[in-house]
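Need the bound structure for aspartic acid, inputs here:
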Amino acid sequence: MDQASMKPSPKGVWSRLALWKKILVGMILGVIAGSLMGPDAELLKPIGTLFVNAIKMLIVPLVFCSLVVGVTSMQDTRKMGRIGAKSIVIYLGTTAVAISVGLGLSHILAPGAGLGMTASAAAADAKEAPTLVQTILSLIPNNPISALAAGNILQIIVFALGLGVALNLCGEKGKPAVQVFESLAEAMYKLTELVMKLAPYGIFGLMAWVAGKYGLEILLPLFKVIGVAYLGSVILVLLFYPAVIQVVGRLNPVPYIKGIMTPAAVAFTTTSSSGTLPASIKCAREDLGVSKGVSSFVLPLGATINMDGTALYQGVAALFVAQAFGIQLEFADYVTIVMTATLASIGTAGVPGAGLIMLSLVLTTVGLPMEGLAIIAGIDRILDMARTTVNVCGDLMVSVLVGRSEGELDESIYYRAEGENLKVKEETA
Ligand code: ASP
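Answer from helper R.:
Posting the output first, comments after.
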């Protein structure tokens, strides 16, 4: 029989589908399964947990090895310092924009207005934020092995940077160790690729569980606050980041938007930016063309300190609580919210639900009732899905920007998908 006339089997079609399309199918089927099964969809959660555990397994060795290799491949220590400084400045800037978007939208759309809540107790005492000195001191691990064992990303970054610089300074004598790290890093990238093949199934399990757990009855009264948080997220990911890429990076933002689909889906369903690191490092290198050196440094740093989505959420949630309890906020309160939420988002770990804990800090600092936290907590997973996606997309945007400004962005990879499209158009013309 003529090969061309043979219909591909469904299995063949599935295996040829791009990963992000498979993930999309997994998501949609998950929502359908969860809605049909209701709370019983909890049964499907282990499939998701399997995937989440598999990616968590990769984080420490992947970040550590790829960062050491990133530093040894860069040689120029001053360049590294510049990349770090640039990343931090852009991270802080985008976070401030994110929280302003959150406050602005909540101010205009008033998601908490008319809920008529009353606070029964005075706001709890504000938590002590760590001092700057404490924060800086805690960056340096007493014992790098326990930092690795505990998965303390900032301490791992500091140790890996130090080790990489030291290996560079060792010259010839450092070469064998560098080769070992290069080989381990390659193996970790390969393992990431294998684990990512599980993504569509894991995401199916997670979506089914979420859709089954939060029926419409729970979501409807809080529909407005969810809507405002999601609207803010869409504005950041589809308008603000592409605009920065276009204006500051002088790049067409379309490949960025197409390229981030897979890590965005992983972030959305796992609600952990640290957990999404393997997917985002892979995406930055293979789809966005960011060099190994820049992606292995900027992304782990971003996953720990850059939380635009969390900042946006803090703004939306704080105003929501104020409106729900009929508390009038002054301009000075807005300024306090911007400052506390920016700092709180830096201190937020890239794990599920961390932003909710930090929200208590913001609420108490401005003297808002803690009961508000309880209302938000009921739907936190739904909000976490949006904010983690923004967190990860923001990190990827900064990696593109920094890569571009340092001549560490391979445009032939960045524009690859576009180029292929153009090629197809030419062929069909
Ligand atoms: N889950 C978020 C993240 O991993 C942090 C948060 O809860 O805001 O980025």
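Comments: Residues 271-273, 307, 310, 348, 350-355, 384, 387-388, 391 surround aspartic acid (CB under 6 Å). The chain has a mean pLDDT of 85.
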